[in-house]
């Protein structure tokens, strides 16, 4: 069975809420999911997963330093996690406030890892963006995201 | 007196509405403004301005081809428009739909021209992003944008 | 058999040389390839392929307007080309001259199409970047790119 | 007299070499310069400068976590460092390896701070990019960068 890591950092709880929705959605689809805060997990676990879904609040238009630190440490597995399926999500304070570039920057880091990155047409294209607390729009978008991620995961 | 080009492309009229608000705001601040659709102006006019404010609807997370064509043609004035003051704006269909990267990509093109690019703290950071028709939020953001742009323009 | 479109725009011939190397490499791997200049093909052909490899010279840190025009027209097939496998390549004038962001912007546009985007570890991470005429480094990188693209294509 | 912070993180010493060249160049132009490793300085010092030139090695296509941590902490001075003049530089392992996006991401963070960001025409457009140890090309580029930065700094 395919196994996915939902990895996130959260201070206010908004990104965490999104992470939980994503983990639940994937579980409902029959995917094995580990839901972890970035502080709870070591990069040594990365190779065991088939894919990663990574979320961060928007700090200055990109991921929080806590998430970047994890990604920097992941250099230890450079060329060893190629082909994993990656998607991103974020919560942010305001429209136009840099949330899209958070998702794009997370994908960019995993393109460098030689991963396979997923875009979306029925939600924030680079991944769902919550403006503050996740609302119904975000819930719907996460459900679309999970559908597509699970479907592609099966094929690769 | 400082002279600014507000340049835009618009199909649905949303970006055009924003362009008009910006032009009006700058005029009210005592700046000389030319408001032009991208089809109405030649790159040969670029050197005569002290700055550009450039807007495009979001097509695939970046500016419309019509705006990109104008920018490609502007290579004729490469190294001849260094130091102009540049800001960007966009209208898009949905939150997370790529609007932020439109503004960022416009700024990026003018960083390559050696221009001076402006970010914002009281609005979409890379420039105002309208979700569909410009509403009161966008109106307020444009007013903040105009204040800052005019203030920096005076100094450079 | 899987069928891939290698699509490019080229003025000086550098991007074209890269396109031909990629098409040849894929053909050698048993993939059916159509090699097309962006002016030679209509967006109506997009749905028939399993993937796209798209190249553009670097004009102002992103794709040429000719490529952007094609992408803008592809909105006609929005939500109809989800899941296609996409990679990018570019030729540029100088190191640090914006070549990387060309590849990244092409990928970004196809993330918006809901496509699956590929990064690399043994070459320019967002796709091969030629500095001027493709040299041996670029040849080697294209060979790595083709290997990985063909391998992932088989699985999805 | 104008005062500039040259701030960097470096592990191999390449980014540090670039930082020293930039600091020396600015000093020769009569600018007061503080040259600091990111670990040596607090965000509390940010308001006292007229501008920042920020360098990081390329870790996964963006700044090192150490630099991002500093930027995250700088939120304390949000809206209090608007209008500072910002430029970026990086050292990276290979062409196409993500160096350009390091510079662009640093600028992006300071656009969010409402700063004024500088692009270049005679060097890496978003800032100088060293491939490994800084060579003569990089030295020449840094000299051009310093000229332009010092010239714009005088005016703003």
Automatic annotation (TrEMBL), chains A, B, C, D:
Coiled coil residues, start to end: none
Gene3D superfamilies (UniProt xref): 3.40.50.360
Superkingdom of source: Bacteria
Cofactor(s) it depends on: FMN
Flavodoxin-like domain sequence ranges: 4-150
GO cellular component terms, A-Z: membrane
One function term, GO molecular function aspect: FMN binding
Listed SUPFAM superfamilies: Flavoproteins
InterPro entries documented for this protein: Flavodoxin/NO_synth, Flavodoxin_CS, Flavodoxin_dom, Flavoprotein-like_sf
PANTHER family, sorted: FLAVODOXIN FAMILY PROTEIN (PTHR30546:SF57), FLAVODOXIN-RELATED PROTEIN WRBA-RELATED (PTHR30546)
Full protein name: NAD(P)H dehydrogenase
